[in-house]
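Entry, Tuesday afternoon. Goal for today is a structural model of the target with 2-acetamido-2-deoxy-beta-D-glucopyranose bound, before we commit to ordering more compound. Inputs were pasted exactly as handed over by J.K., no edits. I checked the ligand SMILES twice against the vendor sheet because last time a stereocentre got dropped in transcription.
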Amino acid sequence: MTANFNVLLFILLSFALTLTAQEFSCPTAPITKDAGLTGVLPAGAKGQVQVPANTTCTYTFQIPKGFALRVDTTADYEVSMENSINFDNIFISPPAVNVVDYAMNTEVPFEIVSKTGDLAFITKYSYIDLSNYKQVIIPTGTHLNTTLDSNKYYTVKASNDNDQVNLQYGSRQSSVADLTLSEVFMFDGNDIFNSKYIGRVPSVYEKQNLFYSTSNTVTLVNLYGNPSSSLFLGNDASVIKTLNNYGVLVMDSDKEYDDWMYLLKGATVVTDSWYTVICKDCTTFSIDYMLFDTDKDYSNANGFVEVQGMTPSHKLQTMLHYQYSSSNNQSFPQIIPAPMATFHLYNSSFHFKLRPGTLQKDFDTSSGATRYVSSPQLWNPDAKSSFDYTFSDFNKNFNFSINLQSLKLENDGDSLNVEVGTADGDNSLDKKYTKTSLENQQIAGIGSYLKLVYTGTKNSTVLLNFEMIDMTETTVSMETTTKESVSSLPLWVLIVMTLFVM
Ligand SMILES: *[C@@H]1O[C@H](CO)[C@@H](O)[C@H](O)[C@H]1NC(C)=O
Ligand SMILES: *[C@@H]1O[C@H](CO)[C@@H](O)[C@H](O)[C@H]1NC(C)=O
Ligand SMILES: *[C@@H]1O[C@H](CO)[C@@H](O)[C@H](O)[C@H]1NC(C)=O
Ligand SMILES: *[C@@H]1O[C@H](CO)[C@@H](O)[C@H](O)[C@H]1NC(C)=O
Ligand SMILES: *[C@@H]1O[C@H](CO)[C@@H](O)[C@H](O)[C@H]1NC(C)=O
Ligand SMILES: *[C@@H]1O[C@H](CO)[C@@H](O)[C@H](O)[C@H]1NC(C)=O
């Protein structure tokens, strides 16, 4: 009985020993798809294999075009500067249980460093054929998330064959970096099969602050499918190259966005900066306030901020112009009837608060404040070309002093109603505009509300601003102005014009 037990113990012990003592060898020849679509590291391993102390081993995988490599790693080791597992510059940290990673490099290293000898691992690998992946074309000026759909790859394409793509990404306000960006692979060209692989997103932007594709396309694929909150935005390179500094900011549809916009490009102060704010899953948002930095280095009377709809690639006209002021808070809130807007800072920086919104109809009045109202498609060509806004405070009496900057209502069915009145139904102003075209006409009415109702065709235009003068107090007029209607002029002309007007 005792003898039998000892034999059993001996067998068990030697079995355990052979398990952990499987010989570790480090092959120097690269691993290829042709040698097998699947395999295991170390070769022949059935479970985790201990790597002897003072071992550095680098396996090299070769990945043919049209394939990706998937590795599933289980590992245990003491994290120290000297023990590590690194695959395609991604550290696989312990304890790892079937941790999945992918790579699309033509040659990718899998490096094991065991200094202390306590590192054990097993990695299963497989080559994945991507030939069934379908292409989705995304035009410049359209954002996309980094949680790209499986079995699809995304090609961002410039609006002109001779142009290139400037691709940017923006992450939501958060203290931690969005690690899922490293799960997106970038190709400089039209597909994932023949185009040049240029790396995981963070590694591409480490090398260059601004990325421009070589041709008119850049392609993205995400094999991991983890949820990500960052967004990509492609712009036509010909537009972005004229800008001193350009960035993308992302806000959520359920959170206020409170931050600063600066004239900074890395550590360098530049004269101009442009930022596109993407309000994710919004149709509209509003500027709650924009407070200019009044610090002596930034309080420059010639400084300003301008806002245009959507992205620079849309080449829409400038809709708002705020000249530097230390007291412009009364100009807000200002509605932006588009899911994106591009801010241009010149010789100024400011603290802003943006609020996501659904289409708002009712607004408070505010003494001495100027508001800007326009047909939504001036902000966003895809917007419904109508609005219905009421500005009111039934406890007060205002002189609504309205400047019809530009009305172009030339199609049947185009109409703009402007009504000023009081709660008891007295209308001091009730105008209906149809089939008309006019510029800079002043009208005014006294009452406790102003109602503006517009329906029109896509190519009709309404651009107006109004001041609310409280009849019980005297107020000073604000320092803001909107740009004239100059829809056909490109952005650079506006900038040059502004510089000369100053
Ligand atoms: C590993 O290398 C270090 C430094 O060279 C040495 O002190 C140590 O004894 C080595 N360990 C083994 C197990 O060879
Ligand atoms: C990201 O985009 C894909 C494809 O457009 C969509 O299916 C998915 O729901 C989006 N994910 C998030 C988190 O918005
Ligand atoms: C900004 O404004 C200040 C003061 O008005 C001026 O001295 C400075 O040259 C301006 N900078 C640029 C880049 O225009
Ligand atoms: C600006 O206006 C907003 C909204 O009315 C207010 O919350 C904020 O405190 C104001 N800021 C300053 C500096 O007046
Ligand atoms: C209201 O404002 C308009 C335009 O500024 C002005 O012409 C008009 O005299 C004002 N009405 C009153 C009663 O103050
Ligand atoms: C504007 O659009 C309407 C209908 O959508 C069309 O009939 C009209 O010709 C267009 N006008 C111009 C100037 O393009």
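The first helix runs from residue 2 to 20.
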